Amino acid sequence: MGGRPKLSYESAQVSREQFSHLFAALAAASPPKPDSIKEEVVQITPERYVKIYTPAQASGQLPVGLYVHSGGWYAGAVEFEDGLCRDIVQRSNIILFSPEYGLAPENPFPDGLNDVCKAYEWMHENASKYGGDPTRKAVMGGSAGANLSACVAVKYASDHALRPSAILLGAMASCDPRALPDEYRRRLTPEKYKDLPMISTQDMITAREWLNAPPDDPLHSCLLHPSVKLLPQTYIAACTNDPTYQETMFFYEECKKHGVVVEVKEFVGWPHFFWGIPTLAATEVFQSVWCQKLNEMLETAAAS
Questions:
Q1: Rounded to two decimals, what is the model's pTM?
Q2: What InterPro entries does this protein map onto (predicted)?
């Protein structure tokens, strides 16, 4: 896998630029854009836009999904995960909405989450205009995008209209370690993830400092949210060589404890967000399983 970009702990802007160079290089390695997918960029607020991916030969109402990009809450962009979005649309025949959101520290918590929530509500309200079915909607993402997706899901879990039909979460941050319940905290071993490819334990600490969310706020530490028990079908992907591994597995355990229909797949030996590298054979496996689970959950939702 090679080394990881060294975070500048003095400047979020410098670190953002480092990660942007990495993400741009990975995006450049993605396959050419297929003609089978249409795209449209829509300004939904004065500051934010959503990129909409639609199958070119769509017929009838298709399910819709909100795809939230990664980047540690302080980096990343819709364009950097364009290839992943297109792949999901091709495999799952779904309309994807991918929002830009405010990045920390310039936009501290909860600004980025609020942007994502506005985009989710906008998708629900406007899905039919793009050929989508707002009653069959998923929310998904990896890394910080997984955290934000889970926070959207718990926020709307008790709302009959806005509750998502399915959630897909990859390598997620689920709870600030300072706020972990004792049953999880006593098993936490951050020292195991000090120096790893992609990101390290210290990178997670720094990213959370820049985000500046209260450790026990359940709309950041979503594992603590009382509506976890109300979540819909959920698929979770965990990377074992990753400082988010334990947070990911703890969220899975919390869902299971509350009776959520949840499944986890562990990618043994792989580092954080490895599927962002399009040339890896393991990326094909990851995406294939991701879309298979998405299809299964949406089919179940349609039948209910």
A1: 0.96
A2: AB_hydrolase_3, AB_hydrolase_fold, GDXG_lipolytic_enzyme
